[in-house]
Amino acid sequence: MCVESDGCEIEGCSSSDEVRTLSGSMSPGLKSNPDLHPCKPGQKFRAALLRCRSPAAAAGILSFGNVLNYMDRYTVAGVVLDIQRHYKVTDSGIGLLQTVFICSFMVAAPIFGYLGDRFNRKVILSCGIFFWSIVTLSSSFISREYYWLFVLSRGLVGIGESSYSSISPTIIGDLFTNNSRTMMLSVFYLAIPLGSGLGYILGSSAKEAAGDWHWALRVSPVLGITAGTLILVFVPEPKRGSADQMGGRIKTRTSWFCDMKALAKNRSYVFSSLASAAVSFATGAFGMWIPLYLARAQVVQKTAEPCTKEICSSTDSIIFGAITCVTGLLGVVIGAATTRLCRQKTERADPLVCAVSMLGSAIFICLIFVVAKKSIVGAYVCIFIGETLLFLNWAITADILMFVVIPTRRATAVAFQSFTSHLLGDAGSPYLIGLISDALQESYATSALWRFLSLGYALMLCPFIIVLGGMFFLATALFFLDDREKAEKQLSQLTRPPSSVKV
């Protein structure tokens, strides 16, 4: 039999079992004691609930939350043409929506990283989800006279979502190790393209079903509140570093300034963070502008008319969303399998796979702007291949961080990697692309052809940034083994065997 933390018996356990307490810690099996009293009905329910807190279930719930995180982020992109017409703003004004969102996201990330390394992580996650869900729902009721308030609401949503992206990978990192951790992180980061694609589909479908684009912002909040509740109930709070040291406990905790100094000296971490910024630059710009770019391409090809109605066609957003879902699945699965295979050949497999995929992606993304004027199908093929190669590296980048950063500073590391990638990446890319497009349109007489070309020329900046990201991954490969060895030595110095359990 087993005992719960309050000293009652739990039926159906053997003496060798372990019991997960409400805090997420593991208590070793204890022998029967005559002083123990039978569990009350409420305590039995509590014990049954604790048995549902398996690492696999926790990873699944966290992945579901990540899907909703990115679904909410790209629901707006799925109805961007409707928002532009409703509020009567320019390309740069629309790009400002994503820029404000990302700026608030990246500013909040270091704060949540600090909190995530020191306080209960699942409580922070749940509060963040509840906050952005309520704000998203409220923003759907903002009238057309208050576009600035709509922009501000996206900034508040970014703060809520920042808590989730900064902290949730560290819980998975403390529940699994080695190839199991790679696989679970792959599932978790699969939620990025999957959620992004579903955001386009959900936004477009809800808009067309209700005949009003505002309803695109009224579905994901309900799912978000559900996810927050599941995290509170079923996700444990594992001991930091428990997976890496098989239950070893951290003897000392370093200060925030010490953590930042160590991360700044970690060359693999620095270069992989810069590479992540290149990925964020491209995905942020693509997520906001590609559906609109393809809609303008069809007007140029005379296969579609310019939108003059209150509700514009969502075909391109739905197709782009579906492609993003499929390429995300393929990219993450292929990336995990390729890395696992290449690790048998070289210990530098992780950053090398990322570098090759980035450089290959740049080629096909360049081709999008070459073929889009003549063939929409050809553009979709290039998007499919380019996105698949680009999505290969998301989970691998997270795994690189887990290898080269010790557990007690991982939340801080994830947060500052998020800060860096957004600051140098998608915080500015949507607005920058819109600004370049507006500037080019002002230089020449406005026409459907030139509106299409100006946006295409602006988006051509993306493949060059992707190539730069590939170079940063190559630099990561040079220092990866040394930094991983340093992290392992630091962890062995900070841990000690768990003390005996007293009852």
UniProtKB/TrEMBL annotation:
Coiled coil: none
Gene3D superfamilies named in the record: MFS general substrate transporter like domains (1.20.1250.20)
Location of the protein in the cell: Endomembrane system
Top-level taxon of the source organism: Eukaryota
Gene Ontology cellular component annotations, sorted alphabetically: endomembrane system; membrane
Stretch forming the signal peptide: none
CDD domains cross-referenced by the UniProt entry: MFS_spinster_like (cd17328)
GO biological process: sphingosine-1-phosphate receptor signaling pathway
One Gene Ontology term of the molecular function aspect: transmembrane transporter activity
Ranges of residues in domain Major facilitator superfamily (MFS) profile: 58-487
Keyword set, alphabetical order: Lipid transport, Membrane, Transmembrane, Transmembrane helix, Transport
Family to which this protein belongs: Belongs to the major facilitator superfamily. Spinster (TC 2.A.1.49) family.
Record protein name field: SPNS lysolipid transporter 2, sphingosine-1-phosphate
Annotated source species: Seriola lalandi dorsalis
Lineage: Eukaryota, Metazoa, Chordata, Craniata, Vertebrata
